[in-house]
Design a protein that fits this description.
Largest sheet: 5 strands, mixed
Oligomer: single chain
CATH topology of the domain at 80-145: 2,3-Dihydroxybiphenyl 1,2-Dioxygenase, domain 1
CATH superfamily of the domain at 80-145: 2,3-Dihydroxybiphenyl 1,2-Dioxygenase, domain 1
Structural class: alpha+beta
Order of helices and strands: EHEEEEHEEEE
CATH class of the domain at 80-145: Alpha Beta
CATH architecture of the domain at 80-145: Roll
Helix content: 10-25%
């Protein structure tokens, strides 16, 4: 199924995912952890004894991460599979290790986590994982080429291949998405 299934119309209003909220048990500990990753501090707002929100952003990400006191009812450590897309997973993993983050070895998915890179070295198929101090889990996913339909044509620097294209096709060498 794709975004242009019969009977559906494309959205006409731009909507960007701006912030993901994480439940944490210790705001200062979480802030220290995310800043230790080299993420940008966007805000640290306190309003009384029962409210504090901290917002951080991974390098070059359009989406930020917020956590704090009085901002979510979720249980600390209950968020899993937050995905950080990288073009070079070995470099990303090495950078995290250099910052003393306990990051897993590389793995791919084949009925579960299987050690090592994807055997066919396909885009979207190789991962590493780490967790924040509360156990909220992050996956690093290597994306070397985007799948068809996964980029908006009107992004700066992007142009469709023809006037009929809604988005930019990947290079001809892009690996197919597994069934």
């Amino acid at each position: 199924m794709n975004s242009t299934t019969a009977g559906s119309e494309p959205a006409t209003v731009d909507m960007g995912l701006e912030v993901v909220t994480l439940p944490v048990s210790d705001v200062d500990r979480a802030k220290s952890f995310y800043l230790s990753l080299g993420w940008r501090l966007d805000a640290d707002i306190v309003a009384g004894e029962n409210f504090r929100v901290v917002q951080v952003t991974p390098p070059h990400s359009a989406c930020s991460v917020a956590f704090g006191k009085g901002v979510t009812t979720g249980e600390p450590g209950s968020v899993h599979r937050l995905i950080l897309a990288v073009s070079d997973i070995d470099a990303a993993r090495a950078a995290l290790l250099a910052r003393n983050v306990d990051v897993s070895e590389l793995f791919h998915l084949a009925g579960g986590r299987v050690p090592g890179r994807d055997p066919q070295n396909r885009s979207y198929q190789t991962y590493a994982a780490f967790s924040d101090p509360d156990g909220n889990e992050w996956l690093i996913q290597e994306i070397t080429s985007r799948l068809p339909g996964r980029e908006w044509a009107d992004l700066p620097g992007r142009t469709p291949a023809s006037e009929d294209d809604e988005c930019c096709p990947p290079p001809a060498s892009a690996p197919p998405f597994p069934a």
